[in-house]
Amino acid sequence: MINFLPTHCNECGHELEVVIGKNGKYKLICPDTDNCSGVAIKKFQRGMSSFDISGIGPSTYQDLYESGIRDIADLLMVTPEQLVNTDIFKHGRALEKLMESIKSIKTLKLSSIIESLQFDKIGSTYSKEIESYISTGTYNSSGMDYIIREQIEDSNSDLNIAIRNILNRLSKIDGLTIITSTKKETNCDVKTFEMTGSPKDFGFNTKEDFEKEILKFGYIHGSLNKNCDYLITDDLSSTTGKMAKALKLGVKILTYEQLIEFIKNKQ
């Protein structure tokens, strides 16, 4: 019997490539990582497996992907009606159990969130080092490729932008806590903040410059809601709408200088 190897991807039709896997064995892959739906689904499945969510397996993740879910934030914000409207899911006990699994998620590890983004060469080990850098400003770069170190330390890298974006979206979910497990801190909440006024009098040209500076200490720019930890202002006597909302919600208000001093005193 003659066995024939496929030459083209079943999903997108792109010519397959032969590569050597981590185990030293040859394997066929589709190199069209930007456009192939098969590659995208596999990356999504690997990324979501970082969270080890009870009751959700590969086939369900494929259905979720085909329903428009792309990351953990999408998953936590989806409603049964949205899933049913895709005609992939139907009302019934199976959907109820899926939603129960989703709603049971109250905490997420920052390292798992980073790993779920599925950046090239960034798996479980490097995700923990990136978490450490965000939380403490330090990480172990031993044996790490220069390109990965550059991605970690450049606040404008695709990696850091992706991390900020997903944390910003997750910060809008009521009752969700993001925790870190670093050498200096264990189960420490990632702090979220909103800004009002200008930081120029405190040594920062823009709000973006201020955000970049404190990102590495575990402070994430999010929305001003009841889950927000701080509203940062240039004037404690300001009467802006954000100030009024923060007072109503009970969100702690600090000046840009006060937060910087608070961070310094914790180090």
Short description:
With 267 residues, the chain is of the alpha/beta class.
Molecular structure report:
- It is a single chain.
- The chain has helices spanning 37-48, 58-66, 72-77, 80-84, 93-103, 110-116, 124-136, 146-153, 158-170, 207-215, 241-249, 256-266, and strands spanning 17-20, 26-29, 107-109, 177-181, 186-189, 191-195, 219-221, 230-233, 252-255.
- The protein is an alpha/beta fold.
- The chain has two domains: 37-105, DNA polymerase, domain 1 (Orthogonal Bundle), CATH 1.10.150; 108-266, Rossmann fold (3-Layer(aba) Sandwich).
- It has a four-stranded parallel sheet, sandwiched between helices. Strands 3-4-5 form a three-stranded mixed sheet. It has a two-stranded antiparallel sheet with strand order 1-2.
- Helix 10 (207-215) links the parallel strand 6 (191-195) and strand 7.
- It is globular and about 75 Å long.
The percent of residues in helical segments reads: 40-55%
Going by CATH, the architecture of the largest domain would be 3-Layer(aba) Sandwich
Overall number of domains: 2
Spatial gap, N to C terminus: 68 Å
Whole-number mean pLDDT: 85
The parts where pLDDT drops under 50 for at least 5 residues are: 183-188
- CATH class type of the largest domain: Alpha Beta
Coarse structural class: alpha/beta
Strand content: 5-15%
| Corresponding CATH superfamily of the largest domain | BRCT domain
The helix count comes to 12
SSE run: EEHHHHHEHHHHEEEHEEHEH
Please identify the oligomeric state: single chain
What coarse outline follows from CA principal-axis ratios? Answer: globular
- The CATH topology label of the largest domain is Rossmann fold
